[in-house]
Amino acid sequence: MVKYNLAIFASGAGSNAEQVLKFFRSHPAIKVALVVSNRSNAGVLDIAKAYGVPTVIVGKSELYESNHIVEILRNFEINFIVLAGFLLKVPAVLVELFPDKIINIHPALLPKFGGKGMYGIHVHQAVKDGNETETGITIHYVNEHYDEGNIIFQASCAILPTDEVDTIRQKVQKLEHEHFPIVIEKLLTGGV
Ligand code: GRF
Question: Is 124 an active-site residue?
Answer without folding.
Answer: no
